[in-house]
Amino acid sequence: MTEERVLEILKEAGVLLEGHFQLTSGRHSNKYLQCAKIFQYTKYSEELCKALAEKFENDQVDIVIGPAIGAIQMAYEVSRWLGVKNIFAERENGAMALRRNFTIEKGQKVLVVEDVVTTGGSVKEVINIVEESGGEVVGVGVVVDRTGGKIDFGTKLESVISMEVESFEPDHCPLCEQGVPVVKPGSRKISS
After folding, report:
1. DSSP state, 63?
2. Per residue in 110-134, pLDDT tens?
3. pTM of the full predicted structure?
4. For the chain, where are the alpha helices, taking DSSP H only?
């Protein structure tokens, strides 16, 4: 899949927003990628998840896991292309956990997926769950890597598209300094 096609999909699906945003990580940015919008359209999610699954087809993946809510549909679609089981982790008392009797067996090869990565906090939490369960993380797959390839999870990282989108600590945000109102479009509560 070409970068041009990925950008076309992001534009058509209304994924890329511009303004002043508080990201899930707490950082601020002038761009926000609302990747959940991709999964409204099966034609886009199928195309992007197939491209991502192909990057892991030789890794003997047994199970695909993603953090809820953003990566539930993505984990399903990537696992469908790989022909394996999928589950998701979700927050319980503020921390990612396996619920609903989902399990990862010792020695299972696990692919962790996420729609968009900025700081990788949720992905790191899911990696910890996999490792604590005795699973082996074979890689991390993301639709959009906002770090431009700079993030390191200690395992293979593949993205459908990698772009560097600038973000700022809230107390050093030029948009805040200009008085531009901040919008918090993400789904995770952030305590100030």
Report:
1. E
2. 999 999 888 889 999 999 999 999 9
3. 0.84
4. 3-12, 42-54, 72-82, 121-132, 174-177
